[in-house]
Amino acid sequence: MTHLLEVAGVSKAFGGNQVLSSVSFNVVKGEILGLLGPNGSGKSTLLNTISGFTRPDGGSITFNGRPIARMASHRIIQTGIARTFQLPVMPEKMSVMEVVMAAGTRQHGLINGLLGLASGRKAEQEDKARASELLDTLLLTKVKDLPAAALSGGQKKLLGIACALMGNPALLMLDEPMAGVHPQLRQELVETLVRLSQQGISLLVIEHDMHFINTLCQRCIVLDRGQIVASCRPDELAENQQVLDAYLGR
Ligand code: ADP
Ligand code: MG
């Protein structure tokens, strides 16, 4: 079993609030791992820590054998980790297509593009083709020319996924992808994520929707007040006493 991501003993406090306490878990290459836990248990903070938006106080994070806990977030993205946000915020004046293109802007492509070099134009064309393909996959083609800020909450989540995929990540981390997504789109979103997984992308997914977790995840980890209290298959959750305690309180 190859570990793509290894999180070992990660802790984080905000002021006197110990939000993560020595969190350890792995993501196996190719798996879809669910991250569960009640509100405030530290799930988003854990994602922020892995993606470099928050620096851990202690512990190590290793991706593809490389230590990343002290890396800047833009460097972490370059190693192949992408993420979406629980509440995506979109720029006011950019169209949906422009937002996806901006997410994919390759530095060499940008500079060559500014200089009018052929390789820059080629990179831009490739990005455009990739962006169109992703908008299609995420059912956003019909709104591609609308301002991104005008999309529904659910469509913004889909757009966040399209942006994350522009960098061709090996690991995609999703923060509550189903919340706010129209019920008719949910099944399509599940199918899209399964397809991504089949293409070899590993997924770490925060989600409360149990149907989603049961359909998609091979394994789940459960956070309770900043500690991992369970690691099991989705069908084992309901009979796990620590999971029940986490959700029902003690
Ligand atoms: P979850 O995603 O599981 O609902 P969060 O990780 O968002 O939980 O939050 C866990 C705790 O960390 C909460 O008590 C929250 O107030 C606190 N927290 C999260 N981010 C910050 C921050 N940037 N500054 C201070 N406290 C924070
Ligand atoms: Mg959260």
Automatic annotation (TrEMBL):
GO cellular component labels: plasma membrane
Keyword ATP-binding applies: yes
Listed Gene3D superfamilies: P-loop containing nucleotide triphosphate hydrolases
Keywords: ATP-binding, Nucleotide-binding, Transport
Magnesium listed as a keyword: no
Domain ABC transporter, residue spans: 5-250
InterPro entries the UniProt entry points to: AAA+_ATPase, ABC_AA/LPS_Transport, ABC_transporter-like_ATP-bd, ABC_transporter-like_CS, P-loop_NTPase
An annotated Gene Ontology molecular function: ATP binding
One Pfam assignment: ABC_tran
Name of the protein in question: ABC transporter ATP-binding protein
Gene source species: Mangrovibacter phragmitis
